[in-house]
Design goal:
By secondary structure, the protein is an alpha+beta fold. The chain has 11 helices and 16 strands.
């Protein structure tokens, strides 16, 4: 029996061709879908303009990346320009710090690490069309979003602030520029899911910046499910690739890339194995998205709260701070969040730095005049996207046998 549960049934998945076939689910309990079938097709960014012009695609949902927007500029000068709508992605890209143990258990080290990072440069190099995020709970897509970063919060690189934080934590900077504690170099493991290209690209830029600031940095890229659930992971080296040169945009944008040097394999002050030894390693800095929708209270508690009966440091990757949990508990039971409580929770998070928010990616909804008339498609709710209205879509006039939607490969 094909998988179903809504207005469409999942009829076929062709991984080789990158296609998914959806068919109308006639037993659906509510109003049935109008169209018989919808094909979801994965398409390289460089072929998307041709696909839109040749009538083979009715609707495209790529990321708002330079190579896409530049191609759309060409189509916009044609006789029938497509409609382009922007829609935020339902996640915020951020760096999560391991606070339970390891070098980043010391908040002064987290402060120093954050002071070395140029968050704007990370965004510009990896996803220049994304929107900067300066809050732990709300995202730019939330109504009434405001930045909560206080004066002096990590934003642009501040070498003096980083040096003060590391020195207060007992580290000494040698003549080679490296920070050491008791003769042991300060080094961190940066983790990113192997199948999440953007996360890996962020990890590469972060590693570059930390190395420039005298911090050893090694990147590991195991499968994302392992990275998000296991306390230690295999020291899998990411697939060799390149990161965009400063100001050049993301990989694939047409600018000349600069190859990232191989990460140094240095000893990591943790109880797990060191990268290069083959033994599992604990990740100090995790590149991962957090949800950008839903009520603020549950959102904050899910990302930064303590599980029931958990003791601080007992679970890997869990930041449990005595000053924070009562605020999160109050937000969870409130009918509507108290702005003063949210603001206090944000102040604690900026002081403790269990994570560092980076940006919220933007998506595009590209449609043709015939598609607009048949679907009246919009970016849709942030949690579900444009496909949430697919049940009401009609077949675009002159589109062929069935409506087709395309996404880009990343």
């Amino acid at each position: 029996m094909p998988a179903s549960g809504g207005p469409f049934r999942l009829m076929q998945v062709d991984r080789l061709r990158g296609e998914v076939l959806l068919a109308r689910n006639d037993p659906y309990w509510a109003t049935a879908a109008v169209v018989d079938e919808i094909i979801l097709r994965r398409t390289p960014a460089n072929t998307l303009p041709t696909a839109l012009e040749s009538q083979g695609v009715d609707l495209a949902l790529p990321d708002a990346r330079p190579e896409i927007t530049q191609a759309l500029d060409v189509l916009a000068r044609g006789p029938k320009p497509p409609t382009v709508q922007r829609g935020p992605r339902p996640a915020v890209e951020q760096l999560e710090f391991r606070t339970a143990d390891g070098p980043l258990a010391d908040p002064r080290v987290r402060e120093g690490i954050a002071a070395l990072l140029d968050r704007d440069a990370i965004r510009e190099r990896v996803n220049p069309d994304a929107v900067a995020v300066n809050a732990f709970g709300a995202a730019p897509s939330d109504p009434g979003y405001v930045a909560t970063a206080p004066a002096g919060a990590p934003g642009s690189p501040d070498a003096a602030a980083a040096a003060a934080a590391f020195t207060e934590a007992g580290y000494v900077r040698g003549q080679d520029g490296r920070w050491t504690l008791g003769g042991r170099p300060l080094s961190v493991v940066i983790g990113a899911g192997a199948e999440r290209t953007e996360d890996v690209n962020v990890a590469r830029v972060v590693a570059e910046q930390l190395k420039a600031g005298g911090i050893g940095a090694t990147i590991v890229a195991p499968p994302a499910p392992d990275l998000l659930t296991d306390p230690s992971v295999a020291p899998t080296t990411p697939t060799p690739t390149s990161t965009p040169a400063p100001g050049a945009g993301p990989v694939g944008g047409g600018a000349a890339p600069v190859t990232t040097p191989p990460p140094a394999t240095t000893t990591v002050p943790t109880t797990s194995g060191a990268p290069g030894s083959g033994a599992p390693v604990a990740v100090d800095v995790l590149v991962a998205p957090r949800a950008a929708y839903g009520a603020i209270g549950p959102r904050l508690d899910s990302d930064y709260g303590c599980p029931p009966d958990a003791v601080s440091g007992e679970l890997p990757g869990v930041a449990c701070f005595p000053a924070l949990q009562p605020l999160l508990d109050e937000l969870l039971v409130a009918d509507s969040p108290d702005p003063a409580v949210v603001a206090e929770a944000e102040r604690v998070l900026w002081r403790q730095l269990p994570a560092l928010p980076l940006y919220q990616a933007q998506g595009l909804v590209i449609s043709k005049p015939q598609t607009d008339a048949a679907t009246r498609v919009t970016p849709g709710p942030i949690a579900t996207g444009p496909m949430s209205s697919a049940r009401t879509w009609a077949e675009p006039e002159g589109s062929g046998e069935r409506p087709t939607g395309e996404d880009d490969p990343n």
